[in-house]
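WARN retry 2 of 3 for item q-0093 after timeout on previous attempt; input resubmitted unchanged.
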Amino acid sequence: MKNLFLLFFFINTFLTFSQDNSGTCASRKAAKTWHPKSASLSVAEIAETEKYDVHFYNLDLNMNNISTNLSGSVEIHAIALEYLDSALFELFESLLISEVKVNGIAVTYNRVSNKVRVPINAQAQTNFVIKVSYAGTPPTAQTNPLGGSGLTAGSSPSWGNKVVWSLSEPFSAYEWFAVKQSLTDKADSCAVAITVPDSCKAGSNGVLENVVPLGNGFTRYEWKHRHPIDYYLISVAVAKYVEYNVFANPQGSTAPVLIQNYIYDNPGTLPNFIDEINETADFMELFATQFGPYPFADEKYGHCMAPIGGGMEHQTMTTQGFFEKTLTAHELAHQWWGNNVTCASWCDIWINEGFASYSEYLMLAALYNGQQANHMTQVHQSVMNQPGGSVWVLDSLNEARIFSGRLTYDKGAGIIHTLRYLINNDNLFFAALQDFQSTFSNSTATGLDFKNHVANFCNINLDAFFEQWYFGEGFPTYQVQYNQVGNDLLLEISHSASMPSITPTFTNPISLRLFRQGQADTIIRFDITSNSQLFTLSNFGTLTGTIGIDPSNWIINGNGGVSADPTLGLNDPTLASLPLLEVYPNPSAEVLNVKGPNEKLTYVIFNALGKTVKSGAFTAQTQIDIQDLPSGTYILKCSSVSGQNFIKLVTIK
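OK item q-0093 returned
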């Protein structure tokens, strides 16, 4: 979701963890498995709803585009997971129930405020159907301060069109239909039928199977979605629309995918947005190559316009206020990140919003090359407007915090960019994303699920990265001091943290751009293990120009400056006693002979872009075959078990 108007807070009286140390990273990690499901149910009531599993919602509603007043029925098809004497679901109290049936038989039910219990008396693994007939007016923000966004009537300030639309994320589905609001209980499918005045169209999820004129001034739109769907992604939108369709041909789809658009029936609206709408096909085709096949290719994608300040990624049919490339790309990316794989807890909304936000960058890089750099700069600047805040959401009932633009969206996108830098192999990075989408398809996942999956897939340890960037707070500010000693360049890379009491050290690598006399600029990647480290670049040559810190802007970071220090390293006993690393011949076309201290060492050869091209281990000395490497300048880094780092520039002829 990319909404600007959701500014109110959800408050809940129950917490399942101590708040005495809520500001510390340790307490955040201790609380990371807390999964509240509702802003209105107690812990015991949440547990009660977990005794059954929903597999189908069938909504049959009467609506218009002027008022949120509605009537109709909802069927909840479910299965008992244990013996079930009664089932608990939610429906806002302003919606009056006329009848409840269980398996076709009217029953007496118990209702307290928004909580409805109906007798089931079903053994474990028994299917049952609850049908709720109801009518009324859903709440507004004034009548329900803890929500009020479930169903809204409004007029477009730009085009004047009147619309009624739903927006249930995160806790407002119960404001317009009977529902179990649990992220981890996706329905297997849903059907939404909306009867509206003949002058209107009604959009929803999945495939429009029937449009039935009723002959009384009303028409019934029958939608069916045959994929697992979370409660907050079921949607309706009613207005005087015109339909405009385009098609995409994404990789992995056996046929063109329909992009079905319900646009305001206004002579100027479609011509104004048609080019932006058409680009949706390009975005879908791009994301299919990066994330895997479009998850709902057998049905459709589409948009329903409504007067909101952004968009809401309703499954297969986003509700969107206008069309602009980053907004449209963001909401489309949600079909993978948020819909196919949904956050298992609002604590982990990063699974939805961080990846959808990063998809804006990916779209710009692929289709508007040159615009992505400024976009990422703005993302980083937004994060650094304040010193603290984690991507992981501690207070997952606080809607303003769940949808924090600075933390959930911008920092969420920024750390995915850093993760890509950490993996240092784009083919592997995107393969990991695709494998995650495949593994967790039609399901839910936490941030730790993603971390563990990618770590295993890429064979990389992500513990420190998630500790510092996901659960931790703040960002580093880097400072570089240097000293030229003969042909050697001594570098001290240090950093301070914006929230040192929570995250004092950031151990992600950092790259520097270095200029040598008579040579092209070189980007060297340095592994960071502490807040201040010394590095020696042997046989570097003569430094010219300014050293650039993180020149490709991979890391959210402040720049503390670069300065010369003629005393650097001269009085450092560790540096003074370092044995030389010998590399010969240099330049070479066939082999590099490497001789270092008499201990175990590892080596990595990077190309000028910082990509690993060779790696290995040896004791004291080795010979590296370089015949398969193209000509050019490379960085050879050797690290000893005693913690010494040696970096040499080598030329391959």
